Amino acid sequence: MKTSPGSPKTGVLNNSAVRSILAALICIFGGLIVGFLVLVLLTAFAEDISVVEAFSGIVIVLGGPFSGGSAQDILFQMGNMLFQSTPLIMTGLSVALAFNTGLFNIGAPGQYLMGAMGALLVSLSIPTATVPAAVVWILALLTGTLLGVLWGAIPGFFKARFNVNEVIVCIMTNWIAANIVSWVFKSTGDRFINVAETKVNFIRKTASNGVATATFGLDKLFAGSYMDISLFIAILIAVVLYVILYRTTFGYELKACGFNKHASRYAGMNEQRNIILSMAIAGGLAACGAAFWCLNGAQDFKWDTYLTLPADGFNGIPVALLASNNPIGVIFSALFLKHITVGGSNLAAQTSFNEYVSPLIIAVIIYFSSFSKLIKDLLHRRVTTAQHAASVQPTPPPDGKRKDDAAAEVVKAKEE
How many Cα atoms are found within 13 Å in the side-chain-facing hemisphere of 94? Predict the structure, then answer.
């Protein structure tokens, strides 16, 4: 039998990165198709909306900030989109890292809340009159991240030591964190609550204490927006995480533990340590995203979180799935989801569709992103099936054997 390197039709699909990109594009395209059908269906029930608006509506969604109108509006929406992508990138990295270790970190919302609490407490407690604002910013970021590390280590510890399903522990820690945050800020009275602006459900902005993330002119480039350098720090973290996962022994051990923790233990790896460290680092990443958001200096944080959990914590899941858990892919998938979110806001502002239509379309696209892993596996199965079919093709006999067979046939013909 002859082993073939693969069919020409599936040669491109042999690359795992290509399969990941194709799977993501298929999911995005499928979500957009369903979103367009939703718009068309709504025009059938609304007499004042024409089918033409359904076509223009999907174009507006795809345009994102570029469908904002004037150049100034486009820059404003672009700046805010880039800034708002930062916590989504961090929670996406958090979920992706856990997935690479065979864990499902659904506890990112709780870790996010703990990070926000730590960053706000430090940034608003230390007077910048005595301590430089830059030092306070660094301390606040480190404190928030450390709280996320500790909060993420809890489900990791129970998973490693007692084999308790991490999803159950994560859900419990989410709501515990939500209640802790509410209790901490309520018990401090008006010290941190934004009474001055009569926003009693929100914490004071860190800029009130002179603490804010550096912009280096980005706020002027994207005039009127909240853009700062946190996005570039998040991108740097994603690159570092990629190097750790794919270029270091520690990253190899984390992925090996995700594939088969029993085999990794047999190979001499400490699978319990890897599980705890993976969840701890994942918690720190999610918390760091919250710290970036709060330390911007101009953002509100709602302190009574005991009834709700932050959406960015959960949205990190489809971001990671859409990126096939690749840290570099997380950057692009987070930017894309925020891109269509801005487009959805413009849809409600520029067409006759109401404000509830755009979140519906975005939710459909996010839902389709959860099929990314399935589509990638189907593409991989197609490759392996084609390679197997090629490998069982009979090989032609060597030239010598062909000559012997031909001579035998001539002799047989003469005898007959």
Answer: 38
